[in-house]
Amino acid sequence: MGQPVNIGVVGCGVIFAQYRKTIERLPELRLLAVADLDLERAREAVGPDADVEVLSVAELMADPRVDVVLNLTIPAAHAEIASRAIAAGKDVYCEKPLAATTADAARVLREAAAAGVRVGCAPDTVLGTGTQTARKAIDDGLIGRPVAATATMLTPGHERWHPNPDFYYAPGGGPLLDMGPYYITSLVTLLGPVTTVIGAGTRTRPKRTIGSGPRRGEEIPVTVDTYVTGVLVHASGALSTLVMGFEGAATKAPNIEVHGERGSLVVPDPNHFDGSVLLARAGGQGWETMPATAGHAEAGRGVGLLDFATSPSDQEPRAGGTLGYHVLDVMESLLSSAQSRSAVTVASTCERPEPVALLPAE
To answer: Residue 331 — φ and ψ, nearest 5°?
Structure first.
């Protein structure tokens, strides 16, 4: 085995701890350094671990030991940090979405191509046993030709638990850009790229009240749609109905269902790596629980970074920038459709990511 890939993290917010936990159990990766605009927050996030250096953003970008920059900043900063990493000659893996806009994301991909470096993008939950087992069932023909899917995410809103939820209700946020990447990435993994969308959206309140942390009780403005719904037309001909909202107390709808000519699947929550896949065969005896047959077992956030860092240079990673761009393009097109009240053609496309064989926990 060669030397581990050195990871430099920019952004030490809530999600950092989950990535760190995964990186530290993977021998192929090494957490070398972290940076944040608030150096004290970076120090607190690292704790007493003397093996992880706390640097300024500029120092981390300039450090020749850093192989890959893991970009965990807020969505509005994704493009800026990615561009800085690319300018420093480093591969960069971004939290979702790839950027706040497709224009920024396209610029990042152009810069990376010109510099000869690679861009990857979360979510990587689709590499777990949940979505991958469902994908294998589809590929094995267990439901016949896929015809349609539904994807539903409804919560009251993240301000209930997040101490600094402002960006969820600002441009680049909202339920679609926040949670949509999980669902749309899963739908593309299951059914292939999207060609056309038809959407609608609304918002019910001009302000939200923070429910936890030192800012509890503070009101923040809402400047994006907080309920977005629509239909995605896949290149395969399948139709996916999407519902994304911060406007529901709860729902009993499955996170994702896929319906084919000979059967139906219930796909587990794409915000998680595992979960039960249920199969109902036409003319069968109801739902059966499928054993895990594909994907990373007991995975955590960071397996996509592993796939990205260890993929051959001439191979598109499963959580690659092209897929991340297409998912962002689908979401932006859906919002555009909601505003114009007409169907919108999705300009981009991507290859359906390669499947993941069943891999034991490391």
So the answer is: -65, -45
254-273 residue pLDDT tens: 999 999 999 999 999 999 99
Determine the residue type at 71: N
**Average pLDDT for 310-314:** 88
b/e map of 313-352 (b: 16 or more CB within 10 Å)? eeebbbbbbbbbbbbbbbbbbbbebbeeeeebebebebeb
- In the beta sheet, which residues pair with residue 296? 128, 359
In one letter, which amino acid is 360?
Answer: P
Contact indicator for 272, 286 with CB cutoff of 8 Å? no
List the beta bridge partners of residue 55.
Answer: 35
**How many helices (H) and strands (E) would you count in the chain?**
9, 17
H helices present in 47-173, as ranges: 57-62, 75-87, 102-115, 129-139
Query: What is the reported pTM?
Result: 0.94
DSSP secondary structure, 224-273, as one string: S-SEEEEEEEETTS-EEEEEEES--S---S-SEEEEESSEEEEEPPTTSS
Residues 256, 260, 263, 264, Cα dihedral to 10°: 10
Q: Which domains does the chain have, with CATH numbers?
A: 5-121 (3.40.50.720), 125-296+326-345 (3.30.360.10)
Residue 191 one-letter amino acid: L
Distances (CA, A) of 275 to 130, 290, 292, 318, 361: 5, 10, 9, 20, 15
Share of the chain above pLDDT 70, in %: 99
For residue 314, what pLDDT band results from cuts at 50, 70 and 90?
confident
Residues contacting residue 3 through CB under 8 Å, at least 6 positions apart: none
Residues facing residue 49 across a β-bridge: none
CA distance 292 to 294: 6
Q: What is the DSSP letter of 142?
A: T
| Alpha carbon 331 to its chain's center | 12
β 277-281/263-267 pair status? antiparallel
Residue type, 92: V
